[in-house]
Amino acid sequence: MLLFVVLGLCLLIILVSKKVNVIVAAPLVIIFVALGNGMSPYELVTGPYVAGAAGFIESFIFIFILGAIFGKVMEQSGGAYSIGNALVAMLGTKRAATAIFLASLLLGVGGIAGFVIIFTLYPLGLSVFDQANLPRRLLIPSIGAGIIMAISAPATPQIQNLMPMDYLGTTSTAGFWPGIFSVTVSSVIIALYLEHVAARARRREEVFDHPEGYVPRAGGGFPPVYLACIPLISIVVLLSVFQLDPLVSLGSGVLLAFIVLFSWLPKPLEVLNEGTKTAMMPLLFASSSVGFGVALQAVPAFLTFIEALADSTLNPLVLAGITTNVAAGLVGSASGGVVLTLTTVAPELSASADPALLHRVITLAAAGLDTLPHNNGYLTMLAFSGLTFAQTYKEYFVTTVVAPVFALALLLFLFSVGVFV
């Protein structure tokens, strides 16, 4: 029954918000959903759930480890602080949240995976927010919003933008101008909102809260900003220009970071050990969330519901937007929402809609309800930062759900009155 799928999703959100570890919560919810649908809990947990979680670990374990090591190099060498100084100098301390959002967006458009952006920007963000004296909780929506905008942008090498190409016969720039319009509208809303909440935090006299193990940086002794930027730029160039494998690109960036920043690393071996240790818990959190989504896709009632949406008499582009958003929300994954839409209803919808516009609507819709509390990227950021649901989710919801959903709704309205069509 679909009711038990929806109730299971609500239960998962409640458990996560109450600080129940998702590694524990996800299997419990799968058991609940299985019992409500007359399925074997044992088979659903040990089958699709374990396969999904294990597959994610197999695909991303070294991405997580290298990303965490890269972040530690940037943090402990002072490279992140140097870049943070430059960003603050350009935009001013009053624009710290917007600076991190734009940095996240640019890295994502350049092809860097969301998890790598988290590991890379978080230590940099600590330096920026330390100087701006802003509460650390605003780092989560600032980084997350940039990632969400990047995955749906036209021409980006993010996987969500590449998957529809094989199914619809389109290119990565499909629906270019509608995509630019929607991402621009979302980004303006996000930037204005971040500035609003930052100003409110200052009025309330909230200050930067030092995380455990963080040493405030002050004075000199830091690498020049041009040296600190070299490893970061190298990853972007290797990924987006030379189109090397993400693992090769990130590994090269880590090696280059050690070479150019070695003189500023007090304990290089400790960076390796600490980075590896830091990566493990976020990896397990994310893999558990992915396993939950895979298990959900094995429930017949869920797939029946997604397919039933295709029978509606709504405009096919509107249907694609609704279907992808619902699917992404239920599985807690933008890429999961794209896959479900492409494999269930996209073939029928493409017969009555421009494939290029359909491509763009699907990618834009994937960056909406996917960031409900069980989203693996959000859980990774919480695990990596040590922050909580209560501290971060309100602003995260506005920047990663409300803004992109509003922009997509506006775009669909323009489609309905003949603009962009």
From TrEMBL:
Record GO cellular component, one term: plasma membrane
Transmembrane among keywords: yes
Pfam families to which the protein is assigned, alphabetical: GntP_permease
Top-rank taxon: Bacteria
MF (Gene Ontology): gluconate transmembrane transporter activity
Sorted UniProt keywords: Membrane, Transmembrane, Transmembrane helix
Transmembrane segments: 49-70, 99-126, 138-155, 175-194, 225-242, 248-266, 278-306, 326-345, 396-420
PANTHER family membership: BLL7963 PROTEIN, GNT FAMILY GLUCONATE TRANSPORTER
Official protein name in the record: Citrate transporter
Taxonomic source organism: Dethiobacter alkaliphilus AHT 1
